[in-house]
# Entry
Amino acid sequence: MTTIPKLKPLTPQNNYPEFSHIKLLCCDCDGVMTDGGLYYDATGHMMAKFHVLDGMGLKLLMKTGVKTCLITQSKTGAIDKRAEILGLTYCFTGVEDKLTTITQTAAELGITMDEVAHIADDVNDIPLLEKVGFAITVPNAVTEVKAISHYITERPGGSGAVRDLTDAIIRGQKV
# Structure
């Protein structure tokens, strides 16, 4: 695995040449792409709030050739729809074992886990975060995830955190 100092802040004024190696960005959904809140209408239908900055960041990142994916334990149509609208490379919902899914995806792409970045906020992502080359978290993450992550975004999940990361990867791709 790539050796990186623990919990380095992602800031707009810094370049991240190490990010030039990233070929696949995986994003947890609840608490990263969303604010982690669960919203239900009167009929019990669950809704999710996504930030437009994150969506634009993912679109810009895909233009550089980096593959993108959402991976979540949740299984809601809102997540599938968001991935479809953005044109993401992969969307995995209802996944209990994220490490196996992403390891298989990396193998299919012909890349190593050192070329994978994953952004997450909770303990169910720890096995994957421990194996990827670039482990990223958000300020609203649990302590256990912060303890093993390499980088932390300035903005919290659901408020442009993924955009902080995509912008940093794009800057790294240009170095």
Summary: The mean pLDDT is 95.
